Amino acid sequence: MKKLLFITAMLTLLSPFAAWAMYKPMRVLAPSWVDGITCISSEICLEDKSQYKVAEHLYRNALGDVSQLVGLFKENPRVIFCSTENCYQSFGFKNSSATNVGTSGIVVSPRGWKAYYLRHEMIHHRQSEEFGVISSLFKPEWLIEGMTYSLSGDPRKRLSDRWQSDRDKFNHWIQSIGMDKLWEEAKKI
Ligand SMILES: [Zn+2]
């Protein structure tokens, strides 16, 4: 994901139009240009309009939970809800359940319509706001992924070894500093 963000940032700086044409994740910047995607508001875009109520419910709950836990969003994230793999892949993603691209947007796969997945990606958005999109790339994985796996309330007791070790390390760190110093201390790392 770090590589992806880096390429996105570089392409945007070089040429926004070329980035759009060449690099699929850039499409999160203007999802309504993507075939079959409708943006109902500046916050919610989706493939299957009949699912709007479900998407909005997920969005509002996750936004409220995440704001309460890690502070208010400077700008509410845009979330694109895909109902098919084809839609998810048209943004350049596959296999994962959902993906956040800096502060540009979040794309949710058909497998990712779950409160904790949305909270996970929204926390990544908050990290980009607090650290900066580029600086986030240089933070250690245990801080970036450990924070999201831990604070999203991911219900899986045991994650794969890599994410489990990130989550354990973050939990140990946050216990020693306390949630009220989360960003202040995280920025020093
Ligand atoms: Zn993540």
Structure characterization notes:
- It is a single chain.
- By secondary structure, the chain is α/β, with parallel strands linked by helices.
- It has helices spanning 2-14, 16-22, 52-70, 85-90, 115-131, 133-136, 141-151, 161-177, 182-186, and strands at residues 38-39, 44-46, 79-81, 98-101, 105-108.
- The chain has a five-stranded mixed sheet with strand order 1-2-3-5-4.
- Helix 3 links the parallel strand 2 and strand 3 (79-81).
- The longest helix has 19 residues, at 52-70.
- The protein is globular.
- It starts with a helix and ends with a helix.
- Bound molecules: zinc ion.
- Residues 120, 124, 145, 148 line the site of zinc ion.
- Zinc ion (ZN) is lined by residues 120, 124, 145, 148.
Features:
5-stranded mixed sheet, binds zinc ion
Note the quaternary state here: single chain
Count of β-strands: 5
Bound molecules: zinc ion
Shape: globular
Termini separation (Å)? 19 Å
SS summary, helix count: 9
Summarize the amount of helix as a percent range: 40-55%
Main beta sheet, described? 5 strands, mixed
Order of helices and strands: HHEEHEHEEHHHHH
Rounded radius of gyration (Å): 16 Å
- The helix-and-strand class reads alpha/beta
* Biggest sheet, spatial arrangement of strands: 1-2-3-5-4
Strand content: 5-15%
